[in-house]
Amino acid sequence: MKINRENIRPAIIDQQLFSFLNNLRGFRHIVRHSYDYDLNFGQMQLVADDIEKNHEALVIKINEFIKFIHAEIKKIETHK
Predict the structure, then answer these.
(1) Backbone angles phi, psi at 9, to 5 degrees
(2) Within its chain, how far is the Cα of 10 from the centroid?
(3) pTM
């Protein structure tokens, strides 16, 4: 998702969003698979703050990718 595939697709997310999503994935993994892991409010607040900080940028990047897909579909349809 973070790598530009020339002549295939652009990068969907940048390094900053990749790092955010990777950290979120790690947090989710710990919560789901560590039965003896005690969550604390401070840690959850940091994760929530990170989500709030990065949500809009992620939505923008996903919408840009959707526009790219629509443009590619139009190209295919015009070549039929």
Answers:
(1) -160, 155
(2) 14
(3) 0.77
From residue 25, alpha-carbon distances to 34, 35, 79 in Å are 14, 17, 40
Angle at 10 between CA 62 and CA 53, to 5 degrees: 35
Tally of structural domains, the chain:
1
The SS3 assignment for 44 reads helix
Residue 9 located in a structural domain: no
* Domain presence at residue 4: no
pLDDT in tens, the chain (80 residues): 899 999 899 999 999 999 999 999 988 887 788 767 677 788 889 989 999 999 999 999 999 999 999 999 999 999 87
- Which among 29, 21, 4, 7 has a CA at the least distance from the CA of 57? 21
Q: Which two tokens stand for residue 50?
A: 């990170």
Structural domain harbouring 37: 15-78
